[in-house]
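Thread title: Can someone regenerate the structure for this chain?

I was given the following input by a collaborator and told the matching structure tokens would be attached. They weren't. Posting the sequence so someone can regenerate them.
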Amino acid sequence: MIEIALQKLQLKEINNVTFQVADIMDDKVAINQYSVILALSVLHLTDDVSKSLKKINDLTSKNGHLISITPCLDNRNYIFKTLIKLLQKIGVAPKIQSLTYKQLASLIEKNGFNIVESKVWDAKKGLYWVVAKAGRNV
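Best answer:
Regenerated them for you:
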């Protein structure tokens, strides 16, 4: 994805944007330096969603933004949730945090963000889209 983004930047002659792939918990990642952090289909895979959101808040510059799309599995049907649990037990599926849309929104706000816009992106897949502005430090 970064290669594609870099090609688009070059094509449009944009030179004030950079991209970085990193583990947000790595101490080498600069604090308060990022104007936008994308968390696309990743928060539900973290060991601790709240801790990850706090770290994202720390990394985001003043008035920076978090853009997230997250599968909220507690908004999926019972059959899907049961299937995921079974696949996890046999080692086929990764550990997944199961949240509702409301729980995710609450965690985002509790960890220093103000939600600017949010919506259910795809109810069938339980995808919840959020744009949040960095606010107070937690």
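The mean pLDDT is 88.
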